[in-house]
Specification:
about 220 residues; alpha/beta; five-stranded parallel beta sheet; 5 strands; binds 2'-deoxycytidine-5'-monophosphate
């Protein structure tokens, strides 16, 4: 019997505002893959904990939130805010919370929604922990200054006022927490290609990613 069709999986990791989301959505549309922004899971846990008036660093509260997460929680507009981002980074340090979110992510990669040929997952530990066997691994990064500038522009477009120095400081704090944590820290997998987007626009990033993916595409069966 022919082996069952194995989904094609692209793992995108890297720090905030490096361009993973834009690239991930574009690659998914281009190759007919499903897309999962795994940061939303951590953000949803953070927002649930804050909504209950509890501390994101409290293991019990965060774990309760992670275990009771539903698909509807991922549509909450508050997930896009910086308060959600900071809370997400704090709950993401708790190993039990990460563990509670592993199976959802692996299931998405192994059995992407009907009609898709695979999945693009973006996060911090996709290539290292969630999908170590991914067909393609790209670590998307950019200088902190560039990322802060992009985040500031995004906030302004949403009508939120902030200043560059504050956005930069918060981003560096989050980078430090995400890279220093004991479990599944943010880092490039050994077999990942590092894509520095500092001097590239969205089209340039997409073109570079296609160069990386091209040789790894499987011949159609
Ligand atoms: O990608 P994002 O900015 O939405 O992620 C928010 C936080 O969630 C990030 O600072 C760290 C955490 N996170 C994680 O630890 N692992 C992931 N795979 C995705 C996000």
């Amino acid at each position: 019997m022919a082996p069952p069709h194995k989904p094609f999986v692209i793992a995108l990791d890297g720090p905030a505002a490096a361009g993973k989301g834009t690239l991930g959505r574009r690659l998914a549309a281009h190759f007919g893959l499903a897309y999962l922004d795994t940061g939303l899971l951590y953000r949803a846990v953070g927002v649930r904990v804050l909504g209950a008036g509890e501390d994101p660093a409290c293991k019990e509260a965060a774990l309760r939130a992670a275990r009771s997460l539903s698909a509807a929680d991922l549509d909450d507009p508050r997930l896009r805010g910086d308060e959600a981002a900071a809370a997400a980074s704090v709950v993401a340090e708790i190993p039990e919370v990460r563990q509670a979110l592993v199976s959802f992510q692996r299931e998405f990669a192994a059995h992407p929604p009907e009609g898709t040929k695979g999945a693009v997952l973006d996060g911090r530990d996709i290539g290292t922990v969630i999908c170590p066997g991914a067909d393609v691994k790209i670590f998307v990064t950019a200088s902190p200054e560039t990322r802060a500038k992009r985040r500031l522009k995004e906030l302004r477009e949403r009508g939120i006022t902030s200043i560059h120095s504050r956005v930069l400081r918060e981003m560096k704090e989050r980078d430090a927490r995400d890279s220093a944590r004991a479990v599944a820290p943010m880092r490039a997998a050994e077999d990942a290609t590092v894509l520095d987007t500092t001097d590239l626009d969205a089209d340039g990033v997409f073109a570079k990613a296609l160069e990386v993916i091209g040789p790894r595409l499987r011949a159609p069966r």
